[in-house]
Amino acid sequence: MKPFSILISAFAVLMLGAVSAHADTRDVYTISDIPVDRTAATTREAEAQAFAEAKIIGLRRLIARLTLPEDRAALGEEFYSFSNANELAAAVDVEDERRSTTVYRANLSVVYNPIRVRAILNQYGVPYIDQQAALSLMAPVASNATLQTEWKAAWPEAVQGALSPFITGLSHYRADANWATLSSEARAVGAGNAILAELVTSDTTYAVRLTRVTAAGNFSIGQTGFVATMEEAVAAASAYLDAAWKTRSIVRGDEVRTASTATVRYRDQRSWNRVRSALTGSPLISGFKVDAIASDGALVSFTYAGSPERLQTEFGQQGIVLTTGDAGWSIALGGSRQF
C-alpha cells in the first residue's frame, strides 16, 4: 500500500460536497393506496369519516414500516386512536374520488409528520428506522423462460416508499448472476447493488429466494414464506427486504458504541463519493468526520454501533469492503484495484 500525501485543495472541497443517495424522507412517511368507502347522513360527514379512517389505517401501516413486531407490540391499541393519528398526520391526498349525497368513496394517501412521529416513538421507547436503504436494481429470476416472463411481469417498475427501494431491471438474468453481469444496468438506474429475486415454486404456491449482489460479492438475504400468487410473492419479497433492513439497521439504546478511525482508498472522485455517502448515510455510524484527504485516499473518524462484524456486513451489502489490521480500519469499494 503506497502512502498518500495530504492535499489542501479545491479537490477536497469538491469531494466534501458529495450528496447522499438516500431518498426523500417524505416517501417513507407517506402511506398510499388506502381505499375508503363511507356512508353517512351527508357526503361531507361521509368524507370526514373516511379521512379519519384513513389516518388510523395509515398510522398502523407507517408504524409497521418503521418498526419490528417485537418492538411495536409495546405501543398498545390506544396508540392508534383517532386523536393520535390525527395529531401525527400532516396531509391527506385524494385519488379516484367518487361521492353521492350520502356516500364517499376514494383512494387516499396520508402524509405523516416525521418530527412528531419520531418524538412519540422516542417517548414510548420504541426503536425504529426511518432511513431508507440504498437503491437496488431488482432482478427477478425463474427456472425457465416462460416462468421468467410471467414472474418479471408481476413486479412493479419501481418501489420508492419502502425502506428498501428498488427499480426493476429490464434485462433477463440467471440465478447465479454476479456483479459483473448486473453492474451495467444497476449503474444506469443509479443503484450501487442488485437483488436477485429467485422464484421458488411448490405445487401451486410461490416463495422468493433473495440474494444481494455487489462488487464485494453475493450475500444471501433469505427466503420468504410460500403464498398463493406471484403478486403476493412480490409483496412478501418487498416486506422481507424491509424487515431485513430494519433488523440490520435499528440501533438500540443499550448497544455498544465504538470510536474508530479508518483509511479510505479510492481511485477517483466517483469512488470516494460512493464510500463517503455510505459512511455518512449509515444508521450505524455517527460523528463522521474527514480528518485528511488526498487524490487517492482519506483519513476519517467515526463512531459505530454494535459489533465490527455487523459493520462489515452492513457495508459489504453496499459493495464496500471493510478490513481491520494493526493500523485500524481500511475501507475500499469492492473490486477496486489495490494500492
Q: Give the ordered list of helices and strands.
A: HHEHHHEEHEHEEHEEEHEHEEHEE
Fraction of residues in helices? 25-40%
Q: What do we call the CATH topology of the largest domain?
A: Double Stranded RNA Binding Domain
> Could you tell me how far the N terminus lies from the C terminus, measured between alpha carbons in angstroms?
5 Å
Give me the secondary-structure topology.
Blueprint: H1 10-16, H2 25-28, E1 30-39, H3 43-66, H4 69-72, H5 82-88, E2 89-99, E3 103-112, H6 114-124, E4 136-141, H7 145-153, E5 158-159, E6 166-168, H8 179-188, E7 193-202, E8 205-214, E9 217-223, H9 230-249, E10 257-265, H10 269-281, E11 285-293, E12 297-305, H11 308-316, E13 320-325, E14 328-333
Parallel strand pairs: 4-6, 4-7, 10-14
Antiparallel strand pairs: 1-3, 2-3, 5-6, 7-8, 8-9, 10-12, 11-12, 13-14
Helix pairs in contact: 3-5
Report on this structure.
There is one protein chain. This protein has three domains: 94 residues, no CATH class; 100 residues; 114 residues, Double Stranded RNA Binding Domain, CATH 3.30.160. The protein has 339 residues and is of the alpha+beta class. The chain starts with 9 loop residues before the first helix and ends in a 6-residue tail after the last strand. The longest helix is centred in the N-terminal third of the chain and has 24 residues. The chain has a six-stranded mixed β-sheet. 35% of the residues lie in helices and 32% in strands. The protein is globular, with a radius of gyration of 23 Å. It has eleven helices and 14 strands.
